Amino acid sequence: MPQISDTPSDSVRERRVADSLIPAILLAFTGGGIDAFVFLNHGHVFAAAMTGNAVFLGIAVLAHDRHEVILHTLPFIAFVTGIWVSKFLAGHLRYHAITIGLLCEILVLFAASWLPSSFPEVFFVMIIAFAASYQVSSLRTVDTFAYNSTFITGNLRTAIDGLYDTLNPVTRRQGFHQCRDLSFVILSFALGAFAGAILAPRLLNHTLWILDLPLLAVLVTILYTRPEKRAGPSGPAHS
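-> structure tokens emitted (239 positions)
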């Protein structure tokens, strides 16, 4: 079992691991899969892409469709609440907010996977939106670049910015890494959405079992990645 120590250096290690490329790719896969699954199986509502919900909400208001207005408004409330809770965890847990928050998201999605098909769709979406909001608010950096694991608009802009910077000899190296990292995240999101669309009609709510696996992999990576050895005052460390 991993030993978790409550030290500032351990917190920095957790953040460094969580912000690396592989976790970002895994998180994006789950982000794409969750919205595809929820959209197809639970009332054509998004659990994480609030931009899409805002568009549908505007259409519902113009159509005077009260049911659709409620269906697209309540996920906003759950999403905002989830962001608030994640900030609370970050401010009060000192060192392990990332690990604990990610574990909570995994458990919430796993619990939701057992809910029956008769469970009200609007409350189901609220549960998933609450869980997904953790990724948006707490895990938003890949390497040194800002990204989002639940939608790709900003990621696409950042990737193209990086591609443009590769044409400048001064910024070529950083631009290449930026374009590469964000392109992998975008591709993973698309693959996750594809997987969610395939699994949703077949596994129903148990689709969340599959979408939980990348999150579990990120959690295991954070817990089992050992701290980097640092050079001491007399020179490099030797094994």
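The first strand starts at residue 141 and ends at 142.
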